[in-house]
Write a structure and sequence with these properties.
- There is one protein chain.
- The protein is mainly beta.
- The protein is built from three helices and 21 strands.
- A hairpin with a 7-residue loop joins strand 4 and strand 5.
- The protein starts with a helix and ends with a strand.
């Protein structure tokens, strides 16, 4: 039963807006356009969206955040009992900088710090799935130094190294009752780190049309010396020893092709197509420092599948200083039937987005975005037998400020 609790280490959080636990909240302009930004090069967020286009960006910095509110509910298929989450607001952020010897330099250096994974999922006390999860808190930060070179006025290439650092705190109840009628509980704390890269090509064959191609590598987040703590009756304490564990979190690779078309001097359209290598998440294994008959090393099938997402958007220049944006994204879930969990109640989804941008001066720009998505997924988990329907509503208003050198 304890192994069900440790499923969560690979759930960096599906509770957000994209397939599985992939999150696409790395730039306000792009967020307002459904997350499309591979071929529409606008600002320093290109460090994330397409390193190949970074050499076309002015020397600049951007700092932004996207407060995120997620409300979830679960209806048990056997009892019709409804349980709800009371998760706190989370605050994903992103900061980017691009610099060259001159603004027109062919060679540009960039740096990004962003949080593609990070949230708290907390279910109400005594909910029907408390033996699968009561609380999950995650914090992850990616650091990406990047270099980009403009080969010609039409072609740019770039690559960035990624160092990922994360923390996790997981809690659940255990179906053991003490003398006072309280359930036992388990808590998992761990730090994880991993390495990867982000590469891209940007090409503008005509003035109005651009195409981008990027590849973000998979990252194996290694959890070493994690700590498992159990609060159980003294009579069974020997079966649940506090101790260390190790595991790995396979974050998927993402291959993206993007297109941008300038309809006229005021209207631009963008489309990104993501191919996400979720098949790497086939099995979840844990190695515990101390094993007992109740706490064994485990291997749990996850059986995720590779998926595709479509992100599209439009930007319209209301004036020389004011921009309006709309977007729509559709993502296919990698979670197959039988593998839905309270941490990853994922489903095929549509994201609705909007945004606005205002140029305060020649140096300063403000951008804001808004995202809404609704999820609904019915399933019976093959391991926990938790059966029912998950519903989730997410809203995410974001903002950023940019400065051009």
């Amino acid at each position: 039963m304890i192994k069900y609790f440790f499923l969560l280490i690979l759930s960096f959080p599906a509770y957000y807006f994209s397939q599985g636990f992939q999150v696409n909240l790395q730039g306000q302009k792009q967020q307002g356009m459904g997350g499309a930004g591979t071929a529409f090069i606008q600002d320093a967020a290109t460090v994330f969206f397409n390193p190949g286009g970074m050499s076309f960006v002015a020397n600049s910095v951007i700092l932004g955040a996207t407060p995120t509110i997620a409300k979830g509910a679960f209806q048990n298929a056997n009892t019709n009992e409804i349980s709800r989450t009371n998760s706190p607001v989370s605050y994903p952020f992103a900061a980017y900088g691009v610099v060259g010897l001159k603004d027109s330099s062919q060679l540009k250096f960039g740096f990004g710090i962003y949080t593609p994974f990070g949230s708290t999922v907390q279910w109400e006390n005594g909910w029907t799935g408390r033996f699968a999860l009561t609380r999950l808190q995650l914090r992850a930060i990616f650091f990406q130094p990047t270099i980009s070179y403009k080969i010609t006025n039409k072609i740019g290439v770039g690559a960035g190294f990624i160092y990922a650092s994360g923390k996790v705190n997981l809690q659940k109840d255990i179906p053991i009752i003490d003398a006072d009628g309280n359930y036992a509980s388990a808590e998992l704390n761990g730090k994880a780190e991993g390495y990867g890269f982000n590469t891209g090509i940007y090409f503008t064959p005509t003035k109005k049309f651009a195409v981008g191609l990027t590849y973000r590598s998979g990252i194996k987040m290694a959890v070493n010396n994690g700590t498992a703590t159990f609060k159980v009756p003294a009579s069974v304490a020997a079966n649940f020893p506090n101790g260390k564990f190790t595991s790995k979190l396979p974050l998927p690779s993402v291959t993206t092709i993007g297109f941008k078309y300038e309809v006229n001097s005021k209207l631009n359209l963008a489309l990104d197509i993501n191919y996400v290598g979720w098949k790497a998440y086939d099995t979840l294994a844990f190695d515990y420092e101390v094993n007992t008959t109740s706490l064994l090393d485990t291997k749990s099938a996850r059986s995720y599948k590779n998926t595709i997402a479509f992100r599209s958007g439009a930007q319209y220049a209301i004036s020389t200083k004011l921009m309006a944006r709309l977007g729509l994204a559709y993502g296919i879930t990698p979670v197959q039937n039988g593998y839905v969990t309270p941490e990853t109640p994922d489903a095929n989804r549509i994201n609705y987005t909007a945004g606005i941008g205002y140029q305060i001066s020649n140096k300063f720009k403000l951008d804001a975005s808004f995202l809404f998505t609704h999820l609904k997924r019915s399933d019976t988990n093959l391991e926990t037998n938790l059966s029912g329907t998950f519903k989730t509503n997410v809203i995410a208003p974001g903002f950023s400020i940019g400065y051009i050198f």
